[in-house]
Hints:
Number of strands: 9
Number of helices: 8
Structural class: alpha/beta
Amino acid sequence: MILYDKLSNTDKAKLIAFKEKYYQRYVSYLQEELDNKLLKGFTNNNDTINQIYCYLQIVPDKYNYYLEFIKIIQKYFVLENKKVLEIGAGSLPILASYLESKALNYDIMDPGIILEDVVGIKGRVFKEKFSLDTSITDYDLLIGYNPCAATEAMIRNCLQNHKEFIIALCGCAFLPESYKKRTNKEWQKYLFQIIEKLGQNYNLYIEYFKDYLNIEYPILVMKLKK
C-alpha cells in the first residue's frame, strides 16, 4: 500500500539520479524493483524502495516507519550503553545510519548489503547470512526490521545465548516444510511457540506500528528478567 506519493519534480529528479548512479550495484531482481516501482511512492512494505526515499529525505517523517521503529526501540532499551548487531539491514542500511550514533557500538549483517558506503556506516559490516551458528557473544542487543528468513535463527540464537532483541516481523512465512498451512498467522504462531519454549528467562512485549502506517505485523521485544 502506498503511504506517500506526493513527489515533486525535484523529488523525481533525485530518485532518477540515485538510480542512474547505483543501479548496477543492485542484483537483477532488485533492478526490476527500481525499474517498476521507484517513482510510484513510499509504501508500507517495500524496503528496497523505501530505504532510498528515506536516504534522499523525500518521505515526511510521519510516514517514515524506520523512525517509528526507533521510538519503540528506545522505549525499551538505552542504546548508549549497548553493543548492537542489526540483522537484515537491507541493500541501503538506512536504519543503521539513524541508529549507530546512538549506540555504544553498532554493527550490521545482511548478505544483500551493497550501499553501506553511501550512508557512511562506521561499524562493522558483515555481508553474510545470520544463522544459529553466528557468534553474538560480543553484543548486548540484536535488532531486526523485517529480517525475513533470518527471523527464526535470530530468535533461537538470542534465546540460547541470553541476548535481548527486538524484531519487527514482516508478512512472510518461513515455516518448516512439514507445515501445510503456510500463512503469516501460522508463522507468527510458530515463532511464539519457540519463544514460549526457550524464553522462560525473558519478558515478552508486543508492540504495533501506528494504524495509519498500515503495517499489521507485530514487533517482538524480548528483555531478560531481572
